[in-house]
Amino acid sequence: MSDKRDLLILGGGLVGMTLALAAAKKGISSHVVDRADPAELTADGFDGRASAISTASWNLFTNIGLAEALEPFGCPIDSIAVTDGMKPGRLDFQPEPHEGSLGRMFHNRRLRLALFEAAKDEDLIDWHFKADVTERHRGEHSVSVTLADGTVLEAVLMVGAEGRMSPTREEAGISMAHWDYSHRAMIVGLTHTRPHDNVAWEIFYPAGPFALLPLLDDEQGRHCSALVWTVAEKDAAGVLAMPRETFTAEVAKRMHGVLGDIELQGPVSSYPLSFQHTVKITGQRLALVGDAAHGMHPIAGQGLNLGLRDVGALVEVLCEAGRLGLDLADAQVLKRYEDWRALDSLMVMSATDGLTRLFGIPGKLPSAIRRLGMGIVQRTPPLKKFFMDEARGVSGDVPELLKG
Questions:
Q1: Rounded distance, CA 293 to CA 174, Å?
Q2: What torsion, rounded to 10 degrees, do the Cα atoms 281, 284, 285, 291 define?
Q3: In this structure, are residues 287 and 334 in contact, taking their beta carbons and an 8 Å threshold?
Q4: What is the mean pLDDT of residues 106-135?
Q5: Where residue 404 falls among pLDDT bands split at 50, 70, 90?
C-alpha cells in the first residue's frame, strides 16, 4: 500500500479515464482499475458506436490537452433536423455562425485511442488494466481494493465509473429508479451517395427514434453516417436476423432518401434501452460518475456528455477542497458534488424520457399536436436558443473545465 493516491477510479472507460486525466491536470493522482484489455477496446471492428461530443465536452477535452489528437477525426454537427416521421413540420436547430457547431461526432474507438495514449504518458495516473477487483474497502480514513493477483491499491476517495452495472454502486447499497423501455437500439455505420452537410437527423416514429449522425468521409471518399435505430424489444431478434439486403431496405424506407442510396458498413450491433437514476451519487468516501450514476435513453445523444459534466464538477470540487486543506473525501465536499449534479442530471434525463414517451404515442391526432408544438418552437428564436444551449451543454452552472 505504499503508493497511496488521491483517487481510486474503478472503471477506465470514456468517463473514468477522462476523470483521471482531468484530475491529473490539476495535480490529483489516481489509480485506474479496469477489467478490459485496451488493445481489444481500440481494435478495428470492436465497437461501431459513435458519440456526439457537445460544445462543453469539447471544451473539456481541449482543456485537458486532447483536442490536438482528436481534432482530425471529429465531424462537426452544424445543425439538427427533428421530424415526426418525416411529415411536414420539421424543426431545425442551427446556431449562429459565431456560436460554432452544436457538437462533434467521433467514433468511440478514436476517443479511446486518444484517452489511452494520454494516460500512458501521465505520471499521476497508475493504470491497472486487465485487472479484476476481488475486494473493496471504504474505511474512516482511506479506501482500498484488492485485485485478483493480490495487489492492494489505496487512495483517499473511491470513484465508481464502471457503467450501468457498476458493482461498486451495488456493493455500496445505493438504490436507484429503473425501468426498461422494452426497446433495443440497432447501431451500424452507413455510407451514402448524398453528402450529409453536417446535419444530424432525429426522425421520430411511434416504434422509436431513428437517428442519422454525421461522420467524416472515409478513406475512399465515401460519405458516412452512424445509424441508431430504435426497435421494440419483441421485434429485435427478427430485425437482427434479417439478411443485410433486407435490413438495408428497411433502413432506406425510414430515411425517405435524405442521404441517397445507402450501404451498411460493418456488423449491426444492438443493446437494450433502459432508464436508471440513483437516489444519491455519493457515499462514505465514494462518488459515482457517468452511467454508474445515471443511464438514459440515447434519444438526444446526451449520455456521455452528462458523464463528462460529472467529471468537470467532481474535479472542480476536489480542487477547491485541496486549496482549503480539506480531506478530498470529506462529507461536505462530496455533498457539494452531489448537489451540483443532482438538478442537471435529473432535468436532462427527465427531458429525454419525456420525449421518448411523447413521440411514442401513435395516431394522427398526437402527431398533429406534436408537429404544432414543433412549429411553435421553430418560429420562436428564444425557445430554439434555449434548446440549443441545453444540447451544447453551455447553460446553467457549468464547471470551469467545460468552459471555453
A1: 10
A2: -20
A3: yes
A4: 96
A5: confident
- State the Cα torsion 295-299-303-306 to the nearest 10°: -110
Residue carrying C-alpha cell 477547491: 320
363 contacts: CB under 8 Å, gap ≥ 6: none
C-alpha closest to that of 144 among 155, 131, 130, 160: 155
Query: Any idea of the CA torsion for 364, 253, 52, 341, to the nearest 10 degrees?
Result: 30
Q: Which domains does the chain have, with CATH numbers?
A: 5-178+275-402 (3.50.50.60)
Q: Predicted confidence band at 214 (pLDDT cuts at 50, 70, 90)? A: very high
Work out the mean pLDDT of the chain and round it to a whole number.
Answer: 90
Q: What angle do CA 301, 306, 311 make, to 5 degrees?
A: 140
Triad 396, 400, 404: Cα angle to 5°: 90
On the 0-12 / 13-18 / 19+ scale of CB atoms within 10 A, 149 is exposed
User: Closest by alpha carbon to 8, among 112, 132, 126, 129?
Assistant: 126
Q: What is the pLDDT of residues 103-116, one digit of tens each?
A: 999 999 999 999 99
Residues 315-325, buried b or exposed e (16+ Cβ, 10 A)?
Answer: bbbbbebbeee
Q: Which pLDDT score, from 0 to 100, does residue 376 have?
A: 72
User: How sure is the predictor about 350, in pLDDT bands with cuts at 50, 70 and 90?
Assistant: low
How big is the chain, counted in residues?
Answer: 404
Are 203 and 85 in contact, with CB atoms under 8 Å apart? yes
pLDDT 10s digits, 244-279: 999 999 999 999 999 999 999 989 999 898 878 888
pLDDT of the residue at 299: 65
Digit-coded pLDDT (tens) for 386-396: 777 777 878 78
Closest CA to 34 of 167, 127, 103: 127
**Measuring CA to CA, which residue among 38, 32, 61 is closest to residue 124?**
32
Place of cell 413540420: 89
Q: How many Cβ atoms from other residues are within 10 Å of residue 223's Cβ? A: 20
